């Protein structure tokens, strides 16, 4: 009998109910957010890449996380609601709200800030009902690239302009992750039908990365475009059109010439003849060099410019952070965002940085207050920067890196490193900031859980706590060499005093991380560094390493000597946990493919001699991490992708989205916690999540709820057996019955 005709009825003590088995996929289990939203101790959340505020309603804000999707507040930032968790990507670079109807919003996907974690986009999202529903537009036009700005013509709101750039990352713009459209045209595009179709503009405007676009609000036929390829181009500069983008003239009149970097521009709303522009020096191949080249002002629509002393500061990475805005009612007050926020008023400059540095978005609300999006979330000032208010309550935009750790004695404890928000420790009541910088890998000693490790970017920036995270001290003496920004390191599961650390080679500590000595030779091709490191749980002599120039290597003597088992393995330059060793079989290893168009899930059962692709019907999505639950045969395989978690229960032949409620965010880390029957996910943009692996209705281990499971549950329910206890309450109650109905209908 088919599943659709198999209907049963039974009692709930025993009220009559009926259910039909539909045989659907793995959707019954629900993910639960673990936060932070925001970090409790400092009220920071993750990087905000764009802000759009209503022009008439001072309480209506839209913000976008760099990898957190679009959020909405109807109470001026007191609370937030995510709007795009089910859309194809959470990477957002630009927002634009219709000035005549604040329920119409456009979101340009792909974060145009050029970092390794500024991921590719998939087109434009549009809502006409304040985010209740969305249309996905222009994927074929813009996929694989990123938005830096979207603007709407106030006189004709069907007309939009978009500044488009490459996905970021050094040295090879790796944030595109090999997307097949990554090399398609960039520049400025125009739509005349509300974002449905777009035209790449020429007429003297080069098809080179565009980093900003602005309109004259009094005459929207006048358009300004900033062409600002971060590595420098002779085409870089500010261009002006007076016929709606049909033809363009490159502006001079005092502006810098030569090889320029990123450029930002703003028009004064109250006096559109007044313009401000910030120029950045070109970026080097390693990401440095991009300091402020100069800030310029024009009072005649761009015909001539004068240099101003603005106080702007972009450190050496202006390719990542550059934004300019003018006070809506005062054309002589402008703000310049970079590492810090500078305010310029009539020739006088001051630094008015929000509580968190690294500015990416500036916007004015309908009450004339300035909103700032930075690497710590959203902040607002009502006095032009003299004081700031955090608006991050409930805004879950944290970008975790790979290397989350859990405690063996307390299920609520999680330690994780975050983009520009250091490392935070979760204890169940909140998250406390414990180490600064860009937080990377963490480790909790499973034999002495009071002993913890955290790091920030760079070689040797390693810290240890012996009091459960209350305090950390610097360790890692002797470490040197090239690093993969956030070097991976591990505690030997059989000897917690022994640790491994990856630069271009493997280092070893025998005194619990206090000092290290070199163990292996250089495992890269001479320029790279180790981006992933793994120790076999069942045999610590087996060590695997992956370098950011594609070498996959295996050691069988604890990391002293390695054998190259795969070369040119495409991956992501930002550190990932891409190699996973089977928990009981040291020769069985899984390798993730974090790029498009490759074998996303590979396995070897002979220590790397041969490989098998296990990606079956898995969509062509980058896979950043693989986790394995080996308690069944075949083992259950989980893939953390750029759009959530997928699971296979048939050795990779078929894959299904696992669980419900997890946003389509970039999953960067997965941890199978078999002792608690749960899976922990670290996302880059939506914080940490957990889901139960206990399938209370799957009694026969088949991986789904079938009729035999149904019969077993009915008997268990009538008898009050504990193994039908979904909610761990200690007995089988009506809630368990209801949960079983869902599990039986949808599959566990």
Tally of distinct domains? 3
User: Residue-averaged pLDDT, rounded?
Assistant: 92
- What is the tally of beta strands? 58
Radius of gyration, CA atoms, in whole angstroms: 27 Å
Which shape, going by the Cα principal axes?
globular
Q: What distinguishing features does this structure have?
A:
748 residues; mainly beta; Methylamine Dehydrogenase, Chain H; 3 domains; 4-stranded antiparallel sheet; globular
Structural overview:
A 4-stranded antiparallel β-sheet has the order 3-58-57-56, with no helix packed on it. Strands 4-5-6-7 form a 4-stranded antiparallel β-sheet, with no helix packed on it. Strands 8-9-10-11 form a 4-stranded antiparallel β-sheet. The chain is globular. It has 3 domains: 3-27 and 699-746, no CATH class; 46-390, YVTN repeat-like/Quinoprotein amine dehydrogenase (Methylamine Dehydrogenase, Chain H, 7 Propeller); 576-689, 7 Propeller (Methylamine Dehydrogenase, Chain H), CATH 2.130.10. The protein is mainly beta and 748 residues long. It is 4% helix and 36% strand.
Give a short synopsis of this structure:
With about 750 residues, this protein is mostly beta strands.
Secondary structure blueprint with pairings:
Layout: E1 7-12, E2 15-20, E3 32-35, E4 48-53, E5 61-65, E6 69-73, E7 81-82, E8 92-97, E9 105-109, E10 124-127, E11 135-137, H1 139-142, E12 145-152, E13 160-166, E14 187-191, E15 199-200, E16 210-215, E17 223-227, E18 237-241, E19 249-250, E20 263-267, E21 275-280, E22 292-298, E23 306-308, E24 323-326, E25 333-337, E26 341-345, E27 348-351, E28 359-364, E29 370-374, E30 377-381, E31 389-390, E32 405-406, E33 414-418, E34 422-426, E35 431-435, E36 443-444, E37 452-455, E38 462-465, E39 473-475, E40 489-492, E41 495-502, E42 506-509, E43 517-518, E44 530-536, E45 539-547, E46 552-555, E47 563-566, E48 579-581, E49 589-592, E50 601-604, E51 612-613, E52 623-629, E53 636-641, E54 644-648, E55 656-657, E56 667-673, E57 678-683, E58 688-692, H2 707-719, H3 734-746
Antiparallel strand pairs: 1-2, 3-58, 4-5, 5-6, 6-7, 8-9, 9-10, 10-11, 12-13, 13-14, 14-15, 16-17, 17-18, 18-19, 20-21, 21-22, 22-23, 24-25, 25-26, 26-27, 28-29, 29-30, 30-31, 32-33, 33-34, 34-35, 36-37, 37-38, 38-39, 40-41, 41-42, 42-43, 44-45, 45-46, 46-47, 48-49, 49-50, 50-51, 52-53, 53-54, ...
């Amino acid at each position: 009998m088919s599943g659709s005709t198999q209907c049963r009825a039974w009692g709930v003590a025993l009220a009559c109910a009926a259910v039909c088995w539909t045989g659907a996929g793995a959707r019954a289990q629900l993910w639960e957010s673990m936060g932070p939203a925001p970090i409790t101790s400092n009220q920071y959340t993750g990087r905000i890449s764009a802000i759009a505020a209503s022009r008439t309603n001072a309480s209506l804000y839209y913000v976008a996380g760099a990898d957190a999707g679009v959020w909405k507040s109807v109470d001026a930032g007191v609370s937030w609601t995510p709007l795009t968790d089910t859309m194809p990507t959470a990477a957002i670079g630009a927002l634009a709200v219709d000035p005549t109807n604040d329920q119409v919003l456009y979101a340009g996907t792909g974060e145009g800030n050029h970092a390794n974690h500024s991921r590719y986009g998939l087109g434009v999202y549009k809502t006409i009902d304040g985010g209740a529903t969305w249309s996905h537009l222009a994927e074929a036009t813009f996929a694989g690239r990123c938005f830096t700005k979207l603007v709407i013509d106030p006189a004709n709101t069907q007309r939009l302009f978009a500044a488009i750039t490459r996905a970021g990352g050094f040295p090879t713009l790796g944030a595109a992750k090999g997307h097949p459209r990554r090399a398609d045209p960039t520049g400025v595009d125009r739509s005349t039908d509300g974002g449905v179709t777009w035209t790449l503009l020429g007429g003297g405007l080069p098809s080179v990365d565009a980093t900003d676009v602005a309109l004259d609000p009094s005459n929207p036929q006048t358009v300004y475009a900033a062409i600002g390829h971060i590595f420098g181009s002779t085409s870089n500069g500010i261009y002006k059109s007076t016929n709606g983008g049909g033809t363009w003239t490159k502006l001079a009149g005092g502006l810098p010439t030569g090889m320029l970097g990123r450029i930002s521009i703003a028009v004064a709303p109250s006096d559109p003849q007044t313009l401000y522009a910030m120029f950045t020096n070109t970026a080097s191949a390693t990401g440095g060099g991009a300091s402020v080249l100069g800030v310029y002002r024009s009072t005649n629509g761009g015909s001539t410019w004068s240099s101003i002393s603005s106080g702007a500061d972009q450190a050496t990475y202006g390719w990542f952070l550059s934004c300019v805005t003018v006070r809506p009612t005062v054309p002589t007050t402008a703000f310049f965002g970079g590492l810090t926020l500078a305010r310029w008023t009539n020739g006088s400059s001051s630094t008015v940085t929000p509580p968190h540095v690294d500015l990416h978005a500036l916007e004015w609300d309908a009450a004339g207050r300035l909103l700032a999006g930075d690497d710590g979330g959203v902040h607002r000032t009502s006095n032009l920067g003299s004081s700031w208010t955090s608006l991050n309550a409930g805004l879950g935009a944290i970008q975790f890196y790979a290397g989350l750790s859990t405690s063996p004695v307390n299920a609520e404890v999680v330690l994780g490193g975050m983009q520009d928000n250091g490392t935070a420790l979760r204890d169940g009541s909140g998250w406390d900031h414990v180490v600064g910088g860009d937080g990377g890998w963490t480790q909790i000693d499973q034999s002495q859980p009071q002993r913890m490790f955290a790091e920030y970017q760079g070689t040797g920036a390693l810290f240890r706590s012996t009091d459960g995270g209350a305090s950390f001290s610097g360790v890692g003496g002797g470490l040197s060499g090239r690093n993969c920004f956030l070097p991976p390191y591990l505690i030997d599961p059989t000897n917690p005093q022994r640790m491994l650390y990856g630069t271009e080679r493997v280092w070893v500590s025998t005194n619990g991380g206090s000092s290290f000595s070199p163990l292996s030779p250089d495992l890269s091709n001479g320029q790279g560094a180790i981006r992933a490191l793994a120790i076999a749980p069942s045999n610590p002599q087996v060590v695997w390493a992956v370098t950011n120039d594609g070498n996959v290597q295996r050691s069988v003597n604890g990391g002293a000597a390695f054998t190259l088992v795969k070369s040119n393995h495409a991956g992501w330059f930002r550190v990932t946990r891409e190699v996973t060793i089977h928990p009981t079989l040291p020769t069985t290893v899984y390798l993730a493919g974090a790029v498009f168009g490759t074998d996303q899930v590979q396995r070897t059962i002979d220590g790397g001699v041969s490989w098998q692709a296990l990606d079956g019907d898995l969509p062509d999505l980058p896979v950043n991490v693989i986790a394995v639950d080996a308690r069944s045969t075949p083992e259950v395989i989980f893939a953390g992708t750029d759009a959530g978690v997928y699971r296979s229960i048939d050795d990779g032949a078929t894959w299904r989205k696992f669980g419900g409620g997890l946003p389509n965010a970039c999953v960067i880390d997965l941890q199978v916690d078999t002792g608690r029957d749960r899976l922990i996910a670290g996302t880059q943009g939506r914080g940490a999540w957990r889901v139960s692996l206990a399938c209370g209705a799957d009694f026969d281990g088949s991986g789904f709820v079938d009729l035999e499971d149904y019969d077993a549950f009915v008997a268990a329910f009538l008898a009050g057996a504990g193994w039908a206890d979904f909610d761990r309450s200690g007995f089988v109650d009506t809630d368990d019955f209801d949960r079983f109905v869902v599990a039986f209908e949808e599959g566990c």
